[in-house]
Specification:
482 residues; alpha/beta; Rossmann fold; 9-stranded mixed β-sheet; 18% strand
Length: 482
């Protein structure tokens, strides 16, 4: 029996009508959302979603503010525009809406069917946005897939690996996951409408390294700094108000919702302030080498709990831990140190304020940006390490070393710099030089710079130089087409 305190059904139906404007003849998705550029991931996502012969729900997973909701809306536009679907056949529900609190997924589906008077077996599309707000969502969604074979179910959620874990445990054979990372630098330039003016393709006969050229490297560097400050978030790129003050608009979603709500609720974390303080330490020191002992001493948290926190943050696609190898390309069995990178360099600015090109943090942020581009390729990112070893009295290091998956030997190596001084100070590249001497690389060793492109020779070994902004663009283009 319904209580007089229950939210009446007609209010739910009113919200349905508000969130699904395409139910009205001649209307589609919001005009501002329609005008957004499509993510590079949209076509493969749409291809997967449109495979209705496969009776599975598609679960769109990614960190907050990377455009999952807009991608669902763009799919609605595709359905209405080219797939011959009638607007009333598509239901979009955002489960963070208080109006839906306490209602089951099946009750929402039934209300949709009854409201639109759909006959049994009518092909329908149902999209559940922010699905993590429903307890045991994976059990309910699996049941819907089994009970309504004529309905294509799609869901999105923000606590990435926790959602993956639950979908694999309870949705085996019923869910297909699709990961949506933050914007690459190439996508940022496209969203900002600057790609064609700042990037040109390099002729194959040109002796300079790389497939792309930056005719205005100062302009590209200006946008690279903007990318570090807010460019990982599509909303910040497209909305001038968010772009002007990313800390004000984005910090709440990173801290209040992820650190203080999503992760604690998913993993039963009691001390949310402790978790938040620890994430702040990691975010501020992105790109630095750390150890559990050092972090434990600094934060006053046990190593066991820190290890759990690191796992949770990596699960939610907030950070990525990178393991160390030595000059022989061997991982240390008892490695005490590792590097931690933000998966989205813009999170640092959202937490601590925007940086300038001369900020002392630029070296580490540039390195973070390089890693964040490679994270768009699961196979490639799993092959990447950093190298550090001791030779005599000197510690030598290489920022990025890729190991060939078949031989576990280095295939390429990169030293990331945000300076044009290095080509005149080749002696500082001893680590890169030593590693390349020991292991024949499939690519010429590369050092990034601020603006210089070219090639130098160190003791008979060729070393390429490329601006780090151009290198990030090149990586993004490589992983997005692969």
């Amino acid at each position: 029996m319904a209580s007089r305190l229950d939210i009446p059904l007609h209010e739910v139906q009113r919200r349905f009508n508000l969130d699904n404007p395409w139910w009205r003849a001649g209307q589609g998705i919001d005009t501002q959302e329609e005008a957004w550029p499509r993510r590079a991931y949209f076509e493969p996502f749409a291809h997967l979603a449109l495979q209705t012969s496969v009776k599975r729900a598609v679960v769109l997973i990614g960190p907050r503010r990377v455009g999952k909701t807009v991608m669902l809306k763009h799919l609605v536009a595709r359905l209405l525009g080219t797939s011959g679907v009638v607007g009333t056949q598509v239901l979009y529900v955002s489960l963070d809406t208080p109006l839906y609190s306490g209602r089951s997924l099946e009750s929402l589906v039934q209300q949709f069917i009854e409201l639109q008077a759909h006959p049994p077996g009518q092909p329908l599309w149902v999209m559940f946005d922010e699905v993590q707000y429903l307890k045991d969502w994976e059990v309910h969604l699996k049941s819907l897939v089994d009970s309504y074979p004529h309905i294509r179910f799609l869901a999105s959620g923000s606590a990435a690996a926790a959602l993956r874990m639950k979908s694999r445990e309870s949705g085996a054979g019923r869910f297909t996951e699709f990961i949506l990372p933050p914007l690459t630098f190439a996508e940022y330039l496209q969203f900002a409408g600057l790609e064609s003016s700042l990037i040109t393709e390099r002729p194959e006969s040109n002796a300079q390294p790389g497939a792309y050229h930056a005719p205005d490297i100062d302009g590209l560097n200006l946008e690279f700094v903007n990318y570090l400050n807010y460019g990982g978030f599509p909303e910040a790129v497209m909305n001038p108000a968010v772009r002007a003050n990313p800390a004000r608009f984005l910090r709440q979603d990173i801290v209040d919702k992820v650190m203080l709500k999503d992760l604690p609720s998913l993993y039963g974390i009691g001390d949310t302030q402790e978790l938040n303080r620890f994430f702040n330490v990691l975010a501020f020191n992105t790109g630095n080498e750390v150890s559990l002992e050092e972090l434990s001493k600094h934060a006053g948290i046990t190593k066991a709990r820190l290890a759990d926190y690191l796992e949770y943050m990596e699960a939610a696609y907030l950070i990525r831990r990178v393991q160390r190898i030595d000059d022989n390309a061997r991982r240390l069995l008892r490695a005490r140190t590792f590097k931690v990178y933000l998966t989205n360099p813009s999170m640092r600015a959202a937490l601590f304020g925007m940086v300038t090109a001369s900020d002392e943090a630029m070296d580490r942020l540039a390195e973070t940006a390089v890693w964040s581009q490679w994270l768009h390729s699961a196979a490639m990112s799993s092959a990447l390490h950093y190298a550090r070893w001791r030779e005599g009295r000197q510690d030598l290091e290489v920022d990025l070393v890729a190991l060939d998956p078949s031989t576990q030997k280095p295939s390429f190596a990169v030293e990331v710099k945000w300076t044009d001084r290095t080509p005149q100070a080749l002696g500082e590249l001893r680590g890169l030089h030593t590693l390349a001497l020991k292991h024949p690389l499939s690519r010429t060793p590369l050092v990034t710079t601020r603006s210089y492109s070219g090639r130098a020779t160190l003791d008979g070994m060729a070393i390429d130089f490329m601006p780090v902004a151009l290198y990030c663009y090149t990586i993004a283009r490589q992983v997005l087409v692969s």
